[in-house]
Each structure stands twice: as C-alpha cells, then as structure tokens.
Amino acid sequence: MNPSGQSAVVSVSRDDRHRFSKPVVDSIRLIEGCGVEGDAHAGATVQHRYLLARDPTAPNLTQVHLIPAELFAELTTLGYQVTPGELGENVTTLGIDLITLPLGARLHLGDDAVVQVTGLRSPCSEINGFQKGLMKTLISKDASGQVVRKAGVMGIVVQGGTVAAGDEIRVQLPAGEQLSLGVI
Fold first, then answer.
1. Which GO MF terms are attached to this record (predicted)?
2. What is the pLDDT, as a whole number, of residue 123?
C-alpha cells in the first residue's frame, strides 16, 4: 500500500505508434471494448505486432497494460533506472500486487473506468534493447522453480472513463473460483 493506505494511479501513458516506451500524459481516456484512446494498441481485435502476425482476427485481450510502481523501486536496487511509461505500460499503479490478481479481477480506476485483468504480460526481447539484462530480472524463477513474470498485467476496458495520476484504484475480485493469470 502507499502511505495514504489507498491504491492509486501513479502515472498514465499512451503512444499512437508502436514504440517500446510510451510518453507520460496528464490523463488517458479508456474506451469500452477498445482500450486507450489514441494508443497504438487500442482496438477490438488484437493490435500487438507479434499477436497480430499470428491471428489478426483474435480479440484484443491486451488493450491496457498496467505495471506496479513498486517494480521500479525493485529494479533500482538491481542497478536499473526505469520510470513510468518506459516499459510500455499505460497505467502505473501503487499499492496493488498486480501479478497475484486472479483472472477476471476488475480494477476500478478513478470515478468511472473499469479494466478487467486478462493475463500476465510476457516481456519481449526488446526490453534488453532498452536496458541490457533487464529481461532476465523481469522473468525469473522462484524458490520452487516456478517461472515468475514481473512485467505487469494486461486487461480489457469493460467500462470507459478518464484516468489520471492520483486517481484511486479499487479491486473487485471475480465471483467463484479464483483462477491464476496465464501469459498473454
């Protein structure tokens, strides 16, 4: 949790082109069933270049990318300097352990927007082009040998709205069985 005890949006980013990092902006507008207005990854069908090449008709389960700010602090202790937007995320959060959320968890961002979590982000090799060796820190194994991915989560917009730094985040867990996130 952050010092105020509430989970919050630290920063928001978008880019209308497919580049690795996204510039920080004052606010973003989430559009139901589409994603971040003005972002290259917005659309009802898949927009990520790798996934687009595999099946351009697939539903877009990667409309919004969220990363915890706590990851940046961890990376700093390992000698990396990463700030919001630099890993391509749309929303940088504080106070939520995103990678442990169950499939279908809903994140209420600010007054109106709701993002439903669809899976873990699978970091790509472009991360090493950003900072050499960074990918190895974002994909590791825990003590039991399980692969741990720390590059945040992906989601779809189920209710639109404007999101800005400082907005509160409320987590709504899905009813029934809590399924672990898979990799998208």
1. catalytic activity; molybdenum ion binding; pyridoxal phosphate binding
2. 82
